[in-house]
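Anyone have tokens for Carbohydrate sulfotransferase 1-like? Sequence:
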Amino acid sequence: MRPLAICIAPVICTLSVMLYHSYPVTAIKEVLPTNSSININTLNFKKNRKGKSIILVASHRTGSSFTGELLNANHDILYLFEPLRYIEGNANKFNQMSNIFHCQFTKSYINTIRDRQGVLRFSQGLRNIFKPRNKFKTPSPIDLSRMCNTYPHIAMKVIRLESLQQLEPLVLGDKLDLKILHLIRDPRGVASSEMNILKTISNNSVMWKLKSLDPITKNYCQRAVNMLDFSYNLPASLQGRYKLIRYEDIAIDTFNSTIGIYNFLELPLHQSVSNWIVENTKASNSSGFMITNKNSTAASESWRTRLQFEDVEIIQNLSPCDELMNIMGYHKLESLSQMNNMSLRSF
Ligand SMILES: *[C@@H]1O[C@H](CO)[C@@H](O)[C@H](O)[C@H]1NC(C)=O
Ligand SMILES: *[C@@H]1O[C@H](CO)[C@@H](O)[C@H](O)[C@H]1NC(C)=O
Ligand SMILES: *[C@@H]1O[C@H](CO)[C@@H](O)[C@H](O)[C@H]1NC(C)=O
Ligand SMILES: *[C@@H]1O[C@H](CO)[C@@H](O)[C@H](O)[C@H]1NC(C)=O
Ligand SMILES: *[C@@H]1O[C@H](CO)[C@@H](O)[C@H](O)[C@H]1NC(C)=O
Ligand SMILES: *[C@@H]1O[C@H](CO)[C@@H](O)[C@H](O)[C@H]1NC(C)=O
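Reply: yep, here.
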């Protein structure tokens, strides 16, 4: 069932979106803790925010932190790093996205940021308003709202979205000028990166075996394939609002990919973004991002030197990762010598 594209009256609109998503959009707002100190009436609430609402949809270990920085480096964009973290349930997740795109912040989200200041590293806007813990007062929802309203555009990275369909009410109900960037990475790269993390947190050699990552990798591929399927038949409301990006393309030519992204966003590419790219894609820069234009091998194809060929074969034949690779133009490697032959491109 498709929602009505035209909302004759709010109640009909709500109903059609509800039928589609099986939860009512107006009721979603009420999922907010009644305790929350947000009083919507007192906020400078722009019902029809003019700016862009940008959502970077990604998965764990897909290079989304790096990609997000391409938005964060733009001083016209308030960029938030994984605001859906620690939020359970689709209705609550939707509510969080909707609120943030309207510059409304719950106390619980603010407390999460306060308690896990790691996210501040990735968000210029938040870093400016959050002060070192215990030394200063935690900002209030109103403080954040004011800060947020000084930005023309809002962007967030989410790695915990179940489906793109969930974003539709942001356009139908909230009337936001939504832009969706869907980031995909080669599942072999994702698995290799996951394995690296496991190695650093566990000395259990059993854990190091890629086999234990099969369900995670499979899950990643399934979600990506589902989203791609949805993207082939986008509902009218999302048409022109969706762009698929490959991490490998960003790694091999960050500047060109960024031009493509900003064209899609219909925003100018600021000098600050170009500067960030220049600084952070230097082979010498140890900013923490494993990426360099000078050696794309070291960046996006490091899995070729890290994984065993048997592991690569397993992933290539794991359904639906085989399908994902096919759709995305990731080439299968047929032998160890092919894997080691770096002049043979894998994407
Ligand atoms: C507010 O939250 C506190 C605990 O966080 C709870 O005990 C209290 O009942 C809540 N009040 C309302 C009005 O929901
Ligand atoms: C990790 O495991 C290896 C091999 O079993 C062992 O030699 C090493 O001492 C262990 N390291 C730590 C920090 O436990
Ligand atoms: C630059 O990016 C566009 C897509 O945004 C792509 O079509 C084109 O091939 C890229 N050019 C180079 C030289 O990579
Ligand atoms: C690396 O990048 C960071 C962040 O952009 C920048 O502050 C730093 O100066 C760069 N370092 C070098 C050596 O270019
Ligand atoms: C690129 O990085 C890979 C892996 O670290 C290395 O083997 C290779 O020699 C590098 N290539 C160049 C041209 O630096
Ligand atoms: C590596 O791949 C290239 C491109 O397919 C090929 O021309 C070359 O012969 C290969 N080298 C080896 C050692 O297999």
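The two ends are 36 Å apart (CA to CA).
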